[in-house]
Amino acid sequence: MNAFDVRIHTIRRRKNKRRPFEVRWRVAGRDKSKSFLTRALADNYRAELIRAARQGLEFDPATGEPLRWAVPEPAVTTWLEHAVAYTDMKWPRLAPHSRVTRAALDALMLRLDGSRAAASTIARKRAVFHDVAGYAVELGLLPQLAART
Q1: What is the DSSP string of 57-70?
Q2: pTM of the entire structure?
Q3: 78, 102, 100, 97: which is closest to 89 by C-alpha?
Q4: pLDDT digits (tens, 9 = 90+) for 34-62
Q5: Could you write out the three-class secondary structure of 85-141?
Q6: Hey, which end of the chain has fewer CB within 10 Å, N or C?
């Protein structure tokens, strides 16, 4: 038996079940089934299985579905990883006076309405920002920035 050995059965109606319409098929000697709420949904799924088998697609013996149907897991990227990758991409073409923290420091000088903040507020925000960035470097969260600052 191999992954190309596929037999698709008729739709079975199961009484007293939440999903009464069951599509059954056999892949590489293993019985597979999937249940649906309506006959139309079950018939559509069965038709897709038949179409894949007629096209000669390889089926996965574990899931019973064609390998092409398998959707890879989306890559999970954190905001920090994205920000570091963006910095790595931009860094070689930036002028030395505008690298990494300049925009953040400029943003600290503004209030939410866009007007300039008081000098004491700017000093406090810069101190907090410096501490946060230093702690991120200390934890190894910003290793690229540690070598450049």
Answers
A1: PPBPTTT-SBGGGP
A2: 0.49
A3: 100
A4: 999 999 999 999 999 999 999 999 999 88
A5: HHHHHHHHHCCHHHCCCHHHHHHHCECCCCCECCHHHHHHHHHHHHHHHHHHHHCCC
A6: N
